[in-house]
Queue: 4 jobs
Job 1
Amino acid sequence: MDKILTLLSNLVNGLQLGSVYAIIALGYTMVYGIAKMLNFAHGDIIMVGAYVVFLLFVGQGFNPLLALVISIAACTVMGILIEKIAYKPLRKAASPLAVLITAIGVSYFLQNSALLIFGSNSKTFSSIINLPSIKLAGGKITITAISLVTIITCIVIMIALTTFINKTKPGQAMLAVAEDKGAATLMGINVNKTISLTFAIGSGLAAVAGALYCSTYPILSPYTGAMPGIKAFVAAVFGGIGSIPGAFIGGLLLGIIEILAKYYISAQLSDAIVFGVLIVVLLVKPTGILGKKIQEKV
Amino acid sequence: MGVMLEVKDLKVNYGVINALKGISFKVNRGEIVSLIGANGAGKTTTLHTITGLLDAESGSVSYHYGKEGKEQQAELTKVSGDKIVRMGLAHVPEGRRVFAELTVLQNLKLGAYTRSDKAEVEKTLEEVYERFPRLKERRVQKAGTLSGGEQQMLAMGRALMSHPDMIVMDEPSMGLSPLYVKEVFDIIKSINEKGTTVLLVEQNAKMALSISNRAYVLETGSITLEGKGEDLLNNEKVQKAYLGG
């Protein structure tokens, strides 16, 4: 019985971590789907978002929600600016590698800027959620408030994003741009604005992910975003890059696998296991779980 | 019967290649005008430059739009592609380029992207369904699952959804069975009869000329011949080069 309870509580932790991965992966996958690029600086936006919350909430005693809203706004603006300054001029570059390498450059730029501003010492983050935990099964399972909030936030974001894409004009424009920028232009869609919007949404979500991640793993340094960023990238590929439900499922699965591997196999090996699973999935299904087959009708 | 579209000395380069070496032609309101020519003559380049997918090196594309009494004029080489459809100029691109992952209905709705009056859009949708009953039958299907001919119907229906005054069509008969080819040309004619001006690019010169008021022959970036559709059909040079006779 205790073993089942432990498993349940591990699953909740896995879902929580997976929810953070999923929120980050949504940004990765949307930008890939619409701008056809891997934004390797996406993880570092998480770090920036977490620093903004840290400065306002921990440093200045702001209301945590207000701090989060400001952080979302800041990251949204930053995402749009990064796209305009660093990626847009390369959109017509002969090689897709140009923008990929630029993204890696932006990633280092953000990390080193944070290093200059905040120093290399890591800061101790405090949870933005200050509510009591829930105890189940006579106190044998404890679900922290941040777990619950993280999972619910992820589900709400997923539903909101799906509705936005399927039911609104800008959402449909995103799908059109994802498939064919030229044809989208002929429909009267402004491709540049649509790509900006995608970066804005992705970066805003990264800010949310940053606050939630650091509320659970409260150590904040300029490199904080790198690991969850790369894991979320794995989650996006795992679920099928370009697919929004894929990012959701990939993120949740990855979080669960990581936590279970940490608990039952080895804490040191958990990352290796996560990446091992990715390799196996890609060998069996190269397009990821929900990835589309690439087919063109001539 | 005023001039609707006037292209003057248009030059377009693809890197070092002069795709268009200074062409001039015009389309009058209410006409069907064809550009015929072989592969690589610059037909698609011409259309892409008109609707803003390509930038011109020099020359002008003057477009007259708006209702009678409120006519406006725009220099299309200076207008970004997404704004051109708002001026009532729609483009049915080569290779159809429907959004394969989206449903037929989503494709059609995207055609009306620039229009905000929902009731009017619904009305146009009904008209499009009436013209293309198969699109109505298949409205929930993904566009990628349609046959080539059906995709062409969808591409045309999608362009009609913007309620255009003028449509440019790029090789609408390409890769279609003879039955569909005839249907496509019948539809172009009927679209025109309802008041939409048509600029048509075709390799199927015979069909194109037979429905056109006027036509231009494009050869490696220059216009070499122009005339009435029927006159070009009977022109010896055209017959030799494009009509297999």
Job 2
Amino acid sequence: MRLGRVVKSFIGAAVLSMVAATGVKAQVQQELSSSSVIEEIKKRGVMRVGMSVFVPWAMRSKEGELVGFEIDVARKLAQDMEVDIEFVPTAWAGIIPALLAKKFDVIVAGMSITPQRNMTVNFTTPYAHSGQQMTANKELAGDFSLEDFNSSDVTITCRRGVAACDQVAGRLFPKATLRRFDDDAQAFQEVVNGSAHAVVSSAPKPRFWTMAHSDKLYMPTDENLSEGNEAIAVRKGDPDALNFFSNWIQEQKSNGWLQERHDYWFKTQDWAGGVAAEQ
Amino acid sequence: MTDRRPPPARKKARFKPFDFLMFGILIAGMIYIVYRVDQVLVYHWEWHTVFEYVVRRDETGALVPNVLLTGLMSTLRLAFWGTIAAAIIGLVTGLCRTSSNLFLRSVARLYVELIRNIPPLVFIFVFYFFISGQIMPVLGIDAFVRSASPESVAVVELLFSPIGLFSNFLAGVICLSLFEGAYISEIVRAGIQSIDKGQWEAARAIGLSRFNVLRDVILPQAIRKILPPLAGQFITLVKDSAIVSLISIQELTYVATEVAATTTRVFETWIVVGFLYFAVCYSLALLFGRLEKKMQTGRR
């Protein structure tokens, strides 16, 4: 009697697992799409965006509001998804760990695609192509050619962890001493003060600073040192999000909206009055 | 029995000519440094752009707080809840450390040594990304505050932080209080152990329970002794709250980095922010000083 019950339950289990196995494939597919961050955002009704202040990508206006190219992009994206938006300003050094820890849904922070970053997060199609520029101290490096900056006597500053720092300054001027700062303003100030020879940063900041301090700074070359590809970063294992954001960016590229906003924030300084930046 | 007369007044100290000379040298030295800084530093000071981020005029011309002031408010909220939580953690673990129970003593010791011997930055990163990243979603705090009624949202925003950052704020308060609690724990332990053993024995001898001895005999005396170092620790907590700027809490230091980056007025921003911290911490120091005096005069 007892043995019979055991056998019966065995058979039952076997049948059940066979039924389950056929269902698994469909289930995985369903789970994958229902666990997408797109679904999460729709359910919550709010898209949470990780960003970091970086002129002119994202800044504080005089009213204390966030404004900038990036902010426009993220707002339009949320508007097209018909959800509200919430910005989570985050220290640059912790922005990728915070994304992985699900502190927000996406990073829209002028983040350039690099292989190292791409190992931990996925990137969409780029929505901007910023260049890296350099500005130098007239007194210290007034007669330098671009090659002269690659010397062990030269100090170059940059913002820690950005493309300008390692990919550009480190690659173009490997002999120079790199001094990394946590924010851009300090890196520039060092050069204005004459404590460092040059600073590498993403456009248009070096140009704006050079204009503001034309008695102290000059740009050794008008050409960009390199081209970056800035994209939205999402967590790995989410093909739906990648597809949705990339296609949205493609669409905004085709209809000219991205170019128009990019030109407004990068080519003009019409917005400078609103953010008290005296560049 | 009760002597309420104040202690004999100390002889009033007066400045002597030598002191004036020393003051003169000090001030001259400072002026020289300021002069040198001005010479060496190529900098056009421009304070008004930063002040606009402290208070601004809205469309009607009325003065309203801007981001730096709201950042200061966040710092104060953080410090307020952090102080309360740290005091509780410190008191409990401090008592544990003086307990006769070996288990309680070891656990409290483990906590204190662990926290005191790792850098705050490391602790905050580990706590925020690993521990709170696991706990907060399980507790469903985010979903809970999001579904709250407008009235309760207003209350939460007044007492704690903007609703979207509530779970970060909570993580920040826990981080900060766990961190400072370890130091307070040591202060509490030292205070309790500074009370003569004879008092314990005498109090137990007249039949008081351990709890009563602590509450009525030991702690009232200990608190008087530990008030000055405790005050110092609470003031440190206000300043230490700056380290949680790493985890997306819009407190003063974080907002200051944003304003400095936006305006490119680095020195002005940090000097203004330094002054705001000083104002808060110095007022706290004065407050604790008065409290200390009150306790001294109220002494039997």
Job 3
Amino acid sequence: MSRLATVVVAVAASLLLLFLAAPLAELVVSGGRQGLHALGSDAELRDALVLTAATATTATLLGLLAGTPIAYLLARRAFPGRAALAALLDLPVLIPHPVAGIALLLALGRHTAVGSALFAAGLRITGTPTGIVSAMLFVSCPLYLSAARETFDRVDARFETVARTLGDPPWRVFRRVTLPLASRGLVAAAVIMWARAVSEFGAVVILTYNPQVASVLSYDRFTTYGLPGALPVAAVLVLLALIPLAILHRLR
Amino acid sequence: MIDVAGLSARAGTFSLTDITFHIPARGYGVVIGPAGAGKTTLLEVLAGVIPATSGTVRLADRDMHGVPPEARGIGLVYQHAYLFPHLSVADNVTYGTSDLAFAHDVARRLGVHALMNRPVHALSGGERQLVALTRAIAPRPPILLLDEPFVALDPRRRAAIRREVRALYRELGSTVLQVTHDFTEAGLLGDVAVLLDAGRVLQAGPPEEVFRKPASSEVAAFLGAENVYAGTVVVLGDGTVEFHTSDGAMTFVAAGDATPGPGHAVVPADEIVLSPTAIASSARNVFHGYVEAVERSGPLARVTVMVDGAPLVAALTTRSASELRLDRGTPVIASFKAMAVHLC
């Protein structure tokens, strides 16, 4: 590479890093102190954060429980339609998130067959934490499935073969060999899913505006009070995002 | 007992085709073949990991159709050991058995007992193979499938472990099928040798028969036989046949029956006697030539003798080669018996 090309690439990379880091740094510098203070004084912010953490955690646990077997099947078994199923599971990541919210509203709203059946069973989706969990699960679970599938792909299937020849049926091999070997990758995948769920806005706001999760609260404060009102909430959310980031760094 | 008949299977783009061989109960079979021949795939089909598309597999007198790997009564050792990295050596060794006393006894006999508290990542390649062997033998499987299990061991230890594994499988009454690249190992261990190439069995039978009487010129070449000649068989009618090499350089006398017409002759290098002058001998094949090359490798020497422009390779001890003063250009007489010529 010529000297000029090296300089051009270095400048472009530096500008990109600056573009990514500067707004967040500015946000924390401008509103960080206020945000931390608001944690003690702003009950609405605290409630939103607790609701966000609870719903994101619920969505992640549901994703782990139901998504892990799907990811394992996609990694290990060849079956007709596997590629189509994998593409279908990636779709929610690719569509605009308000569109995902509208799709969920169509499927789970009170005036749909599924929604009315759930409502009759005492489970209301829209305007409830269940709606928030549904939206978070829909948009963030594909990230877990994709990362978990890659994790299972990296576990050499011959470990499982050896375990089976030693007398273990498939489910016990999964528990004794596959899961322990994949655990770090699965935890990392779950953290990615959780972080994505926490940051979700577009789909959540369509299904459940109130009670408000942190992302909806920051939007609400911005539209109601302008930038000064939204700044502390936004700064707190950036600071809280450092927690999953630190966990991921440690896992890798 | 391992009985495989007409077995075919697919693994990705690779195919095993019409595999047939038989290892008797308590027998020791060896599968020999070049890289990519399908040796490991064959073991995985026998283990039930890769499904057979046709043919039958019987292990210990049971038809294995539809039987999952965990119910086949097999122990499998891969070349790369595949020790479970999240478990200790001790937990690996006892993974498939509740008979801890026997597992520890096998560990002691294979020299693994000193490693029991070590983490797997701290083991050398040879130690990993020993732990994998111990782990596979500990549940006392009736069938042991071994994929190059000694390849990472140093030569001295390899010989000792071979002896110990052979003793253990005899005590357990197991039947063993081992993959190896090592012809010496195949000759030392095997009751049955199975030559595999490109997913097909080239020849199967007792190792001495396979090595001495290759079924085809391809098998002979694969086994590293130097003296493989194309030519024509002529039946003499007195219990012997003549074989005329296609280049016209040599005519061999061979014993036994053969089909007249085109064929191949194999003369094992260690059956050829070299002498500076004619000697009294019952050998029916005597050729005058000169030494083209002498390759010394430790205690053995391979001497290439040119007979009317055709090479004939003799194997003898380095000491004999020195005593005979076999240097390039030295005139020499090469002789071998009719029984030594194998026609295929």
Job 4
Amino acid sequence: MEATSAGAMGSPRPDLYRTRTRRSTGEAAIRYALLVAALISVLTTAGIVFSLLEETVVFFGDVGVGEFLFGTKWTPLAGGESQSFGVVPLVFDTLYLTGIGLLVATPLGIGSAIYLSEYASPRVRRILKPVLEVLSGVPTIVFGYFALTFVTPVILKGLGLEVGSFNALSAGLVLGVLVLPTIATVADDALTAVPGSLREGAFGLGASRMQVSVRVVLPAALSGVVAALVLGASRAIGETVIILVAGGQKANLTLDPAVAMQNMAAFIAAASRADIPTSGPKYGAIFAVGTTLFVMTLLLNAISIRFVRRYRQVYE
Amino acid sequence: MNTAAERSLSRKVVERASSGRRTKDLMFRLALLFSTSVGFVVLAVLVIDVLLDGGSRVSLDFITSPPSRISPERTGVAPALLGTIYLMVLCAVFIVPVGVATAVYLEEYADRDSRLSRLIEVNIQNLAAVPSVVYGILGLAFIVRGPLGLKPVLLAGALTLGLLVLPVVIIVSREAIRAVPSSIREGSLALGATQWQTIWKQVLPGALPGIATGVILALSRAVGETAPLLVIGAATFLLFSPDGLGSRFTAMPLLIFEFISDADTDLRAAGAAAILVLLALLVVMNAGAIFLRNRYERKW
């Protein structure tokens, strides 16, 4: 807080130094208190990384990294000979369930976004968008109940499909409904950010509304729309309860959506509720899977941030 | 000059071309309407399904009595509902000061381009995308065991959920603070107020409706979370209500999980009824947020 710019004038008069008063000390103290609060979020990240890595490192002392990453048999909670720590089935199921979800949510989400930004009147849009956001506020345990007691027995079995009471199809479809509002609202933001002059130019050349939407606005907002999809994927990958309730308790390395599947997050929740000792590879498996999940979502998030930056750079 | 025949021919050509275009446009429009309606239809079907399954079970008794496996037709949700309300209050006590302080620091004090504030900013963005189950692992390793060693008690649950929804509070509060025009700050500073006096007496009151909305939204997310509480080892079925920060607890989503994982049809119906209670709580909270926004939000 000292005045340092004395310059050619020689040293400044002493009464021009800023003196420390009670008021200025208080101001500085408040500033540091606020900084400490802001650092809590940094500490949270550090805490997450540390708590994951600590046990993961111990885990890889017992189980080889290669065995974990490339093994195709995932039975970590079993005893003796049948215990195996190959994470491939769990990762496969996670991606497979996310894939089913995105298969549903991508066309519907982008369709809703195009409708909201290009077709709906401002009044309709003002009503529809918040209702869509309500859908994303429904607790996932409710979606789990819906998948277990309605989608599987009423819809899937009603259509004559031979599915188990826990199956990947039902969990995946409901997962799609869960991420639909995320994709729709983020993609809608990207589409509305496209300047009106592009639309007017296309309309002036005689393009129809559909041509404007599909050939002009959508390509212009493509990086934002991709970011929306990546964000949706990252939410689907990390979802726990829907899969825990309706997907089943076992990771299956199969393409058959009628059988039970378990994703990484559901494994973490199920295993931490199982009666297992708080050390050893069974316990460590929770953290090793957690690390894998954390790294995957972090990568997806980085990709999505990059895409968002790109479309911002173009139009703002 | 065109002859009448030429004119009618060219009109026919144009009409045929545009009628094909019109059908295609109409089909596209219908497809878009269909996509948009799916979300709403699912929401409606979901609510009706839960109402049909559990509507008849909701009563004052259901809310005030403890759960029971022995007589599933008379089971209630009292300990879980109280647990959820306590969690919400404790969570608010934690996230309001920390979240608002972070937002104030980032908006009013931090040098935008300094490495530290960029680090904090990227960090908050990333935290918002971390799956909730990973926060459960953090809670398990740091709060329940490890350094804090609290065991799976009410305070541990509230802290875990608080860390989970903190990014929401920070992001929304920052927007609210940013919306207060700088002329307000400049006026206050020109009158001799210090920076903190300006923030405390001018900026925060102006941003309050936005901040309150953000806090309610964050809390309604915390209330609906199941995964982190499962991971930290909170009880799913508890006969007594929590009686202090160090008491074992359960919460509505956990009890719902317990009920609907059971094959007993009476317990499943109770699960649906508990879902209705939870949804009602969320509707009240969101209505509160909307009311606050409409009633107090200032347009500068």
